[in-house]
């Protein structure tokens, strides 16, 4: 049996602000934006058009979901964006206004820098050592 994670959800205050950040600033690609009616949309993004795993941007629908925005992993880095062009991606993201919590650093496994979205979700940008 072969299995993989096809998508995971990041809850955002609204679809357009999620797209503005993740596509407009972080450099992700819009895969699908389908109107489901009643103010709901199916919004899939990915770091590259051919990525197997996608991110579903979901608009918070109630107070409990709104309270979870940016806290989905309890303040830990919960998302990991691998890059084969770390320096170029870091420079591009920084220039586009992505907030990095630190300068890039070398670890035993490769180069890494922690960044966050406007709502507090923390990510690692990393390039693994060969």
From TrEMBL:
<protein>
    <submittedName>
        <fullName>Glyoxalase family protein</fullName>
    </submittedName>
</protein>
<dbReference type="InterPro" id="IPR004360">
    <property type="entry name" value="Glyas_Fos-R_dOase_dom"/>
</dbReference>
<dbReference type="InterPro" id="IPR029068">
    <property type="entry name" value="Glyas_Bleomycin-R_OHBP_Dase"/>
</dbReference>
<feature type="domain" description="VOC">
    <location>
        <begin position="4"/>
        <end position="128"/>
    </location>
</feature>
<dbReference type="InterPro" id="IPR037523">
    <property type="entry name" value="VOC_core"/>
</dbReference>
<dbReference type="Pfam" id="PF00903">
    <property type="entry name" value="Glyoxalase"/>
</dbReference>
């Amino acid at each position: 049996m072969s299995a993989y994670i096809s998508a995971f959800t990041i809850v955002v205050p609204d679809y357009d602000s999620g797209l503005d950040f993740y596509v407009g600033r972080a450099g992700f690609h819009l895969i699908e934006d389908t109107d489901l009616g009643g103010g709901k949309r199916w919004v899939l993004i990915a770091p590259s058009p051919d990525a197997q795993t996608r991110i579903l941007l979901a608009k918070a629908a109630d107070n409990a979901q709104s309270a979870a925005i940016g806290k989905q992993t309890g303040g830990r880095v919960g998302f990991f964006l691998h890059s084969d062009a770390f320096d170029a991606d870091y420079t591009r993201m920084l220039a586009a206004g992505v907030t990095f919590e630190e300068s890039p650093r070398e670890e035993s496994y490769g180069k890494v820098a922690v960044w966050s979205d406007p709502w507090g979700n923390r990510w690692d940008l990393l390039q693994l050592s060969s």
